[in-house]
Every structure is written in C-alpha cells, then in structure tokens.
User: Which sequence fits this backbone?
C-alpha cells in the first residue's frame, strides 16, 4: 500500500468502484497545484508548520475531497474538541465555532464537524479540556491525551459516588437522560438546568475539581432537592440525580456531607483530554473494518453514497488525518460509501479511522473559511460538535 506522506511518496486509495487517484506530493511547497490530467487536480497548502490542507478534485470519479494532515509531534500544534455554543444543547455551524474561538485569541488552523446529534446534543462521548461533557453511547470515539496521543475505541464510563460505610453508587451517565433506575451526573456543561422531569431526588454539590477521565474528586453537598423538577445548575456546581428506585437508600445524604466521586473511561484509561464521537469505526490496525453492526448502526448506512466526514491517524500515531468528501452534488461530487471512505483514509496513511457525522453536516474549515461544498441547499448546517486544530505559541 502506498501511503500519503510528506515529501515524495504517493497515494493510491484504490476505491472499490475503480478510482485510481495517484497523487504526487512535494512536502516543502507552500502552495502547489498538480494537474495530473485534465480531469484530476490536487492543491496542497502548507498553512503552518505541522498543518497541511489538501484539496483533490477528480472529475472522472466525480469526487471532491478535502484533507487536513496534522503533525501531532509539533509542540505548537494543539487539538480542541468543541460543543456548540459551549453548552448542551446547542447547534452552531463549524465556521462559527472556529470564528468564536479565533475571537477569543485562539489561533484556529482548521477543523471539521464531529458527532451525530439529536435534540441539539452530541450522541456520543464528548470530552472538552479534560471534562466529560457527555458520556459514551456504545459507538466509536476518537480521543487524545494531554500529550496528543490519539486513540479510537468504544469507550465505557466507569464512575461512582461514595455512599454509606464505603459503599459506592454507580453513576450511569453524565449529562444524559435520567430514568427511574439510574443515577446521572449533571455538570454546568449541560446548560442551566438538568431538564429532569421524573420523580426522584437530587444532590447539588460543590466539587473541588472537574469530571474527567482518571480523576477522583471530593465534593460537598449543598442541598438535597426534589428531582421531579427542572433543577437549576449554578456555574461550577454539579447535580447528581437519583431515580426513584434509589430513594430508600439515600436518606443519609445531607447538606455539608463530603462525598467522593471517581471517573474513568475504559478501556484506554489514558486521561482523555479531548474526545468526540461518531461511528462506525472503518479502519482497524491498517485493515478495512466497517463495524456498523457492532456499533448498532442501521443496515444499509454502510453502502449508501453520502457526503462523509472522517478522522484517523497513522500507525505511529504521529499524524492526524481529517477528511471531508463532498456529495449529493451531481457533476461535482457524488459522495462515497463507508468502504470507499475507509480506502481513502487508508490511502492517506491512516492505520485507524472512524466515520463521523456526514450528509449535510459534513463541513471543513481552514483559517475560519469553509473549503468544501456542504450539501444542504439552505446553507451550512448547524451541528452540535466539532474537532479543531489550533496553534499554541509556546
């Protein structure tokens, strides 16, 4: 397999439907256009050390492809996962997310849309600056340690709250729906309120830390309140909401009591610093592995042609690759299925990769500008989360 690399090798994705995109790279170029034929053109832009944007237009195959390639070993490159409007629920376009952080003085180099969403909230795992904004949902996520070490896995939340005599209550999820038989932690990333409607009980507490992977946090209970109401979440506070099945067991909780909570995201247990979800995984250890059935995704989603967004990394975990393939635009780009997407990502040098939200959500920005052609006729679609690359001047 020829790999996408900086400086002189080539890409041959070998798509199942027959495209043969043979691309030649000159890694030191600042801006280079390669007209490999009248029908195929590649534009490569070195935006900054460690960050490249590549545009591929293949008229023969009707494919418009956009790739960001990032050197994770560059000490001035950072990864940033973002939720729309910095809270749940919320929707915001990818360029608006990028511009919002740029206005805060963060040098955003580029990024893509991330997870599927429902009721304006990401469906899966979301970790922001070490805080778990939303717990996993059984689908693949891409996560990064503080040192930018990337992982793709189906992460599982392991979390608990200390009870009587050292017993632990298992926390089922974070910032998700609470029913009668589970316990949910709500943080201020969930917005102003818990939005819980069912009978139960809640503890408002003041934590001495954040709910992050690998963390143990001490918290002081400030109030025991009914959870049948829409409990407010003051800034910096947590609400632990118990379903009514737990009511006979929690009478000993009272204001002033100190409790301990722990959080872990297995199987990596690596201290995820940023993470976004999607699904399904499409590459595993260099082999195509479209795991739609394992991740509970409907049959047929894997073979349909759509605009697609994907993220992956090389076998040595040095390079992050983010890609958007345009679609639903006859005469320009037809879109791809998940097997073609996997072939493309492998051709770009990835050993591991996952699919992210696609269709009208597929959007890529470079320096705050949209570089692809989103498919919605109404314009760029607001989404719930994004994955961005930033420049950290050190």
Assistant:
């Amino acid at each position: 397999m020829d790999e996408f690399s900086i400086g002189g090798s080539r890409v041959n994705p070998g798509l199942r439907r027959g495209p043969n995109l043979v691309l030649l790279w000159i890694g030191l170029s600042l801006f280079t256009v390669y007209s490999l034929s009248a029908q195929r053109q590649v534009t490569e832009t070195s935006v900054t050390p460690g960050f490249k944007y590549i545009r591929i237009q293949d008229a023969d195959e009707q494919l418009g492809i956009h790739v960001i390639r990032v050197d994770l070993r560059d000490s001035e490159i950072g990864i940033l996962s973002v939720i729309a409007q910095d809270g749940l629920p919320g929707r915001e376009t990818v360029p608006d997310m990028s511009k919002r952080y740029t206005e805060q003085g963060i040098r955003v180099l580029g990024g893509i849309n991330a997870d599927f969403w429902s009721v304006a909230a990401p469906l899966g795992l979301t970790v922001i600056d070490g805080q778990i904004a939303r717990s996993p949902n059984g689908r693949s996520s891409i996560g990064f340690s503080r040192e930018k070490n990337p992982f793709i896995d189906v992460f599982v939340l392991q979390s608990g709250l200390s009870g009587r005599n050292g017993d632990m209550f298992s926390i089922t999820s974070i910032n998700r729906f609470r029913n009668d038989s589970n316990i949910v932690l709500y943080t201020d990333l969930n917005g102003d309120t818990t939005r819980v409607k069912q009978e139960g009980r809640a503890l408002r507490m003041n934590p001495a830390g954040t709910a992050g992977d690998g963390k143990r946090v001490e918290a002081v209970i400030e109030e025991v309140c009914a959870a049948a109401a829409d409990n407010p979440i003051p800034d910096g506070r947590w609400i632990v909401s118990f379903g009514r099945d737990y009511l006979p067991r929690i009478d000993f909780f009272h204001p002033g009591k100190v409790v301990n909570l722990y959080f872990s995201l297995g199987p990596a247990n690596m201290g995820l610093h940023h993470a976004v979800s999607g699904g399904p995984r499409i590459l595993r250890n260099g082999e195509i592995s479209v795991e739609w059935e394992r991740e509970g995704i409907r049959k047929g989603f894997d073979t349909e042609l759509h605009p697609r967004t994907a993220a992956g990394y090389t076998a040595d975990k040095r390079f992050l690759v983010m890609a958007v393939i345009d679609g639903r635009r006859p005469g320009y780009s037809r879109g791809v299925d998940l097997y073609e997407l996997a072939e493309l990502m492998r051709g770009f040098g990835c050993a591991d990769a996952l699919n992210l939200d696609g269709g009208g959500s597929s959007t890529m920005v470079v320096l705050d500008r949209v570089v692809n052609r989103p498919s919605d006729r109404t314009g760029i679609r607001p989404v719930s989360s994004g994955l961005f690359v930033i420049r950290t001047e050190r």
